[in-house]
Design goal:
- The complex is a heterotetramer, with two copies of chain A (149 residues) and two copies of chain B (82 residues).
- Chain A contains three helices and ten strands, in the order ββαβββαβββαββ.
- Chain A has 149 residues and is of the alpha+beta class.
- In chain A, strands 1-2-6-8-3 form a five-stranded mixed beta sheet, with helices on both faces.
- In chain A, strand 4 and strand 5 form a beta hairpin.
- The longest helix of chain A has 18 residues.
- With 82 residues, chain B is α+β, with helices and mostly antiparallel strands.
- In chain B, a hairpin with a 2-residue loop joins strand 3 and strand 4.
- In chain B, strands 2-1-5-3-4 form a five-stranded mixed beta sheet.
- The chains are: A alpha+beta (149), B alpha+beta (82).
- Chains A and B meet through strand 5, helix 2, helix 3 and strand 9 of A and helix 1 of B.
Chain lengths: 149, 82, 149, 82
C-alpha cells in the first residue's frame, strides 16, 4: 500500500479491497453538506464478452502525484473540503470496487461536478492500466490497441 | 553520458519482457531519444510507439526534455484505470 | 426503522445512523460498472449562522412510496441495476449523514445522472422535513416560510 | 358522512399542536374541503395554507379529490429532506 495523505486529502493505491466505510468516515466533516462518491466495479458483461476478473497495474509513485495534481485542480474550481481517491491494484474480482473517489463540498452541485471531473480526469491521466480476462481464455490490456501476449 | 532508467508498464512491459531498462545515453540526449533507443531494440513493439506519452521523474514531459543522470523515464501507453 | 426492499432496490427510513458500508455492499453487483452515491451531511455554517444539529421528521409510509416512485422514474430513464435511498430521521448531529442515495449502472455517466435526479427529486417530492437548531438558541423548519414555535 | 384523518407535520403540526386530526365531513366532501375545515379552526396557521400540497392515502392528490370513509389526508408543507 502506498498513500499520500493530509487532513483534507487521502490518496491511496493498494492491493487490498477498498474499505468504503473508512473512506466515507474520512469524508464526513461539519464543513460539508454534500458528498458525492464514484465507485467503479468489475462488470461481468461488455456486450457479448464475459469478464472473469480485472487486473490493474499501476505506476504508483507517479499515479499518486497525478492524483494530487487532479485534486488540486478540482480544489481550484470547487470548494473541496475533503477528497479521497483510492485505487485497488492487482486482481479485482467481479462486482468488487477498483476505484473509490469521494468529494465533500458545502453544497451538492459542487460535489457532483468535482467528482465527475476527478473520475473523468483519472481515466485520462493517471498511470494505471486495466487487463481484462475473459471467460473464453483470452485477455487484453484495455485500450492499448494491441492484443496481449 | 547520463544513465537513465526506462519504466515500462502493461502491454509495453509485456512486449519488451521487462518493466525496467537501464540505458546510458550520449550527453544532451532527450527523453525522445531514450524512447527511440528502446523501440529500435524492440521493433515488434513499434505499433505502440505513437500511443506512448512520456513522463520524466513522475511528471508528463515533452520528448524534447533533456535528460540528466539518474532520471526515470516512463513510457505511458494509453491509461485505463478507474 | 421502516423499509421497502427488493433484490434491486432498498429504501429505508430510520432513526439509526446510516451504515454506509452496508449500503455500498448492497450496491455492488457484477451487472454494474459504475456506482454514484450522494450523501447529505449536517453542515455547521450557513453563512454566519451556526447549526448545532438537524432534526428530521418524516411521513414515513408516504415517503417510502414516493421514494419507490422516484426510483421507478429513474429506472425508466437509465439502466439502474441497484438503487438505495436511506434517510435518517430524528436528530442528525454535525458531520453525520442524513441521506444516502446510491445508484449502480453499467456505465458511469448514467449513475451520475440518475443519482443527481434522485437527490434533486427527493428534495422536492418526498415528505421529509428538516428542523435546523442554531447555536443562538433559535431554530426553524427549513423552507417553511414561518418561524417555528 | 366520511370519517377521515388529517395528518400534519413539521411547522403545521406545531401550529395546530397535534399531528393527527379526526374529521367527519359531509357526503361528497373533497380533500380541499377537509383542508378548509382545518384552517378555519386554526386561523393562526393560515399563512401556511397556500404552501400546502395535499396527499390522500399517501399519494399527492388534487384538492378536488372526493374523500371516502377511512381516507388519510396529509397536509404537506414544503418538504426539506436530504
Amino acid at each position: 500500500m502506498q498513500a499520500l495523505t493530509s487532513p483534507e486529502v487521502r490518496l491511496l493505491v493498494s492491493k487490498e479491497p477498498i474499505d468504503a466505510a473508512a473512506e466515507c468516515a474520512f469524508l464526513y466533516t461539519p464543513e460539508a453538506g454534500g458528498i458525492d462518491i464514484f465507485i467503479g466495479t468489475t462488470r461481468r458483461f461488455t456486450g457479448e464478452r464475459e469478464t472473469v476478473e480485472l487486473v490493474y497495474e499501476c505506476y504508483t509513485e507517479m499515479a499518486l502525484r497525478e492524483m494530487r495534481r487532479l485534486v488540486d485542480a478540482a480544489a481550484e474550481q470547487w470548494p473541496v473540503k475533503r477528497c479521497c481517491i483510492v485505487h485497488r491494484v492487482g486482481v479485482v474480482p467481479l462486482a468488487e470496487p477498483s476505484v473509490f473517489i469521494g468529494v465533500a463540498t458545502p453544497h451538492r452541485a459542487e460535489a457532483f461536478e468535482a467528482c465527475r471531473f476527478l473520475i473523468d480526469s483519472l481515466k485520462r491521466e493517471v498511470p494505471i492500466w486495466k487487463y481484462e480476462r475473459y471467460t473464453d481464455g483470452s485477455g487484453e490490456w484495455v485500450g492499448s490497441g494491441m492484443q496481449a501476449g | 553520458m547520463p544513465d537513465v532508467r526506462l519504466m515500462l508498464f502493461s502491454i509495453l512491459r509485456e512486449k519488451v519482457g521487462r518493466g525496467c531498462v537501464e540505458l546510458r545515453l550520449p550527453d544532451g540526449a532527450t527523453a525522445g531519444d531514450a524512447v527511440d533507443v528502446l523501440f529500435h531494440e524492440h521493433q515488434h513493439a513499434a505499433p505502440l510507439r505513437s500511443h506512448v506519452r512520456i513522463a520524466v521523474n513522475c511528471e508528463y514531459a515533452d520528448g524534447t526534455c533533456q535528460l540528466r543522470d539518474g532520471d526515470e523515464v516512463a513510457l505511458i501507453t494509453p491509461v485505463s484505470g478507474g
